From TrEMBL:
<protein>
    <recommendedName>
        <fullName>DUF1553 domain-containing protein</fullName>
    </recommendedName>
</protein>
<feature type="domain" description="DUF1553">
    <location>
        <begin position="74"/>
        <end position="255"/>
    </location>
</feature>
<dbReference type="InterPro" id="IPR022655">
    <property type="entry name" value="DUF1553"/>
</dbReference>
<dbReference type="Pfam" id="PF07587">
    <property type="entry name" value="PSD1"/>
</dbReference>
Length: 260
């Protein structure tokens, strides 16, 4: 009897071990190779290697990257992007703050989201943008803290209704005297509809989910051909950020809302 019990325990442990091994994440590791020498090609002739040697760097007018080795690496570049002292961390924080403001208010403090240089539109509230950028850096680049600061502000919690006087004085809401009116992204439209219907599942994490879509929607999807098996139960009501994204074949609901 004891032997049978021990065998049963051993079998249970082996099954548990196999289950753990199957669920273990594997990390792909490749051996680093020595970067090849890159030269400027005289008149674009790739057979002519008489041009000067060039290395990874940033434009001279932006300064230089502090190297951790003989040559600049991607990590050096990433550190330079967020270094407010010896890099462009201040500019990075300003661009992020402006873009995040745009997501919550419908327009940026500077409407030139992709051009923050001299040819872009000057910010309507430069002191505010500077303060938000400094706070973002001092908070350790925490997006959660930054978002909390904005959504708890008086400016964000204003009504979007505007009086006739406000429309006359500031028709485009450049001074943010009221909350902006802007179109919600497709994922938010779906989430709001599910929330109003009491169906939204707010679980966090996990694999992508596949809500219902019409049969045959993937019929022209090749390389390889595949079928779409939608989820059942609460999985199909999870937030839009978890919806499966098939390149060039977005979910019909998202595509119908002019794409996410």
């Amino acid at each position: 009897l004891n032997t049978t019990k021990q065998d049963h325990e051993r079998l249970s442990l082996e099954l548990e071990r196999e289950s753990l091994l199957k669920s273990k994440r594997l990390v792909m590791i490749t051996k680093s190779i020595e970067p090849r020498e890159i030269r400027v090609l005289p008149r674009g002739n790739w057979l002519d290697d008489s041009g000067p040697v060039v290395e990874a760097a940033v434009p001279d007018f932006l300064g230089s990257i502090r190297r951790d080795g003989d040559r600049a690496s991607r990590l050096d570049f990433a550190n330079w992007l967020v270094d407010p002292e010896d890099g462009v961390g201040g500019l990075t924080a300003r661009v992020f703050a402006n873009r995040f403001w745009y997501l919550l208010f419908g327009r940026g403090i500077s409407s030139s989201l992709t051009d923050f240089g001299g040819q872009g539109e000057p910010p309507s509230h430069p002191e505010l943008l500077d303060q938000l950028s400094v706070d973002f850096i001092n908070d350790g680049w925490s997006v959660k803290r930054f978002m909390r600061r904005l959504v708890l502000s008086h400016g964000y919690r204003q009504s979007s209704n505007a009086s006739s006087e406000a429309k006359q004085n500031d028709p485009y809401n450049r001074w943010f005297a009221r909350q902006g009116r802007y179109r919600l992204p497709a994922e938010m439209v779906r989430d709001n509809a599910l929330a109003i219907g009491g169906l939204l599942v707010a679980d966090i994490g996990g694999p992508s989910v596949k809500p219902y879509q019409p049969v045959g929607y993937y019929r022209h999807l090749n390389f390889p051909k595949r079928a779409y098996a939608w989820d059942i139960g609460k999985q199909q009501y999870r937030r839009g950020v978890y919806v499966h994204w098939q390149r060039q074949y977005l979910h019909p609901m998202l595509k119908g809302e002019f794409r996410p």
